[in-house]
Each structure stands twice: as C-alpha cells, then as structure tokens.
C-alpha cells in the first residue's frame, strides 16, 4: 500500500510582532511525524490549540514549514512551499467545519463544482457538465440543486456540495477539518456514512481532524493524539481509545461524557431525592 502523505519532523512557527521593531515566533507544531496510506483514514485529535489545524495548513502550503519535511505522493514540499499551490491542490483538497463559510454565497452549486474542473483540470464544457452530474450523484444530490446558492441549502446539503467540490479533481488525500461538528447528530451520521462510502468507491485517503472521539471511533483506522503541538500517541484507533498509553490521552478520554456515567449519576441523584437527602 503506497503512502500518499509522509510527514517527518514537522515544525511550524508563526511570526508574532511584539513591538514596532521587534518580533518573535510562536511555535504551533513541534517535530511531528505522520504517515497516511492510500485508502486509509488517520484521525488527528486533541483540544483546541493543540496544533491540529496548523498541521493541515502546512500540508496544503498555507503555513510555514520551519523544520522537517512533507511529501505528497513522494513529491517533496520544501520549506518555502516552492511546489506551486496549484500542484498541491491537484493532490490534496480540504473539507471545512463550516460549509456556509467555505462556499461562495454568490455562486450556485453548478458554478462551485465547475470552477476546479475548469481551472485545475482544463476540461471542456461538455466534460465539465458530465463530471458535475457525476459528482452530484456521488454525494446524493439531484440536478435540481444545480441552480441553488448556499443560502438555499440545508447544512447537510451544503456540506455535501463542499465534499463534491473536494473530490471533483480526484485528489489522493482529503483533509476533513471538523467536517461534522456544526451539523445535527442525524446529519452527522449521514455525512460520515457518505465519507466512508466515497473512500471505498474512490480509494481516498483522509486526514480527519476532530475533537469528537465518537466520530473518530466510527471512521478512523489510525488515531494520532496531539498536545501542545506534539503528537503524544499514535496507534490503531480501537487501541488508542480503549487502552491509551499516554497520560494526556487518558485525560482527554476521561473528559468525554459517558452515557453510562451520566445514567449512573442520574440514578444516584434520584435515589438521594427519594431518600429525602
């Protein structure tokens, strides 16, 4: 199985201006190693500010690489990002947390899906129309959605459009940055099922960034836990979530509400009330 993403020793520093003539750096990511193979889903989890999104931004050339290396399908992205963004976008696409914010409100669904096909694949009009129709079918939308704008779609429909746009040019890796956190629970399940089906049909690899460990358990083959810019634990998802080895991972898991714990607490409370305590 070939690797579509190989990260070695990645360090990301952001410049921070501290005065008129002086500046310093904020280290967001330190010495991160990560590998994703074709058809695999790797989840990157951790609290807000742990560095998850900075890793994603470095992969797509939007964050500075201070040290280390990133290779996309064996093509090295150097620290200056000298591989053009257009080349990166042919290999990697992103699905964002807020589909309403990631879609241009002025563009119809047709315009949104046609844009990457025109600029990145240089297809003719007939081929573009055929590909757009195929994409709608892949994500469970109909031809009636083509003329609609984001405000005329539900949250789930908007995310389906965002996913269709991401897979339009057949990337090898899709970065999903909290793709379900803004959706209702029932819609979350539909989107997760859609991502899983597309992975099987198109042999996609996913970097799935999330704080929802329930969703991670459902979709990820491997889970990497980030804390203060470092990966502190990596392994098969079931092992990491059921038998964590790092103290931070255990703390992260203990902070997740448990149905069993909540039910037990409610029972204890009811008993106390009945006893007149």
Compile the SSE list and pairings:
Blueprint: E1 3-17, E2 23-37, E3 41-45, H1 52-59, E4 67-72, E5 75-77, H2 85-91, E6 92-95, H3 99-102, H4 109-121, H5 125-138, H6 155-167, E7 173-177, H7 185-202, E8 205-210, H8 213-219, E9 222-227, E10 230-236, H9 237-242, H10 247-254, H11 259-274
Parallel strand pairs: 3-8, 3-9, 6-7, 7-8
Antiparallel strand pairs: 1-2, 1-4, 4-5, 9-10
Helix pairs in contact: 4-5, 6-7
Describe the protein's architecture and organization.
By secondary structure, this protein is of the alpha/beta class. The protein has a single domain (3-262), classed as Rossmann fold (3-Layer(aba) Sandwich), CATH 3.40.50. 41% of the residues lie in helices and 26% in strands. It has helices spanning 52-59, 85-91, 99-102, 109-121, 125-138, 155-167, 185-202, 213-219, 237-242, 247-254, 259-274, and strands spanning 3-17, 23-37, 41-45, 67-72, 75-77, 92-95, 173-177, 205-210, 222-227, 230-236. The strands form two sheets. The chain has a six-stranded mixed beta sheet with strand order 6-7-8-3-9-10, sandwiched between helices. The chain has a four-stranded antiparallel beta sheet with strand order 2-1-4-5. Helix 7 links the parallel strand 7 and strand 8. Helix 4 (109-121) crosses helix 5 and helix 6 packs parallel to helix 7.
Terminal CA distance: 62 Å
Give the strand content: 25-35%
Largest sheet: 6 strands, mixed
Write the H/E string, N to C: EEEHEEHEHHHHEHEHEEHHH
Second-tier CATH architecture = 3-Layer(aba) Sandwich
- CATH superfamily annotation: P-loop containing nucleotide triphosphate hydrolases
| Radius of gyration of CA atoms, rounded to a whole number | 21 Å
Globally, the shape reads: globular
Return the average pLDDT rounded to an integer.
87
Q: How many structural units, i.e. domains?
A: 1
In DSSP terms (H or I, runs of 4 or more residues), the helix count works out at: 11
What percent of the residues sit in helical stretches (DSSP H or I)? 40-55%
Broad CATH class: Alpha Beta
- Low-pLDDT sequence parts: 259-271
- The total of beta strands comes to 10
| Strand ordering within the main sheet | 6-7-8-3-9-10
Query: CATH topology, which one?
Result: Rossmann fold
The helix-and-strand class reads alpha/beta
């Amino acid at each position: 199985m070939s690797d579509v993403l190989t990260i070695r020793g990645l360090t990301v520093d952001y410049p921070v201006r501290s005065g008129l003539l002086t500046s310093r750096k904020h280290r967001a990511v330190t010495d991160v190693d990560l590998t994703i193979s074709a058809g695999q889903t790797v989840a990157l989890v951790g609290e807000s500010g742990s560095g998850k999104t900075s890793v994603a931004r470095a992969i797509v050339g939007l964050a500075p690489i201070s040290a280390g290396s990133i290779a996309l399908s064996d093509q090295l992205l150097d620290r200056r990002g000298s591989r053009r963004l257009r080349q990166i976008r042919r290999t990697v696409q992103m699905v964002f947390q807020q589909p309403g914010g990631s879609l241009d409100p002025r563009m119809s669904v047709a315009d949104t899906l046609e844009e990457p096909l025109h600029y990145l694949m240089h297809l003719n009009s007939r081929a573009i129309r055929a590909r757009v129709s195929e994409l709608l079918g892949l994500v469970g939308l109909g031809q009636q959605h083509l003329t609609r704008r984001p405000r005329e779609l539900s949250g789930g429909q908007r995310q389906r459009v965002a996913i269709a746009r991401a897979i339009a040019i057949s990337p090898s890796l899709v970065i999903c940055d909290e793709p379900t956190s803004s959706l209702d629970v029932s819609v979350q399940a539909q989107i997760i099922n859609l991502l899983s089906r597309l992975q099987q049909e198109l042999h996609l690899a996913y970097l799935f960034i999330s704080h929802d460990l329930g969703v991670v358990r459902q979709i990820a083959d491997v889970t990497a836990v980030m804390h203060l810019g470092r990966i502190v634990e990596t392994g098969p998802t079931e092992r990491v979530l059921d038998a964590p080895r790092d103290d931070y991972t255990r703390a992260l898991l203990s902070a997740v509400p448990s149905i069993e714990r909540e039910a037990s607490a409610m029972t204890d409370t009811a008993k106390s009330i009945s006893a007149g305590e």
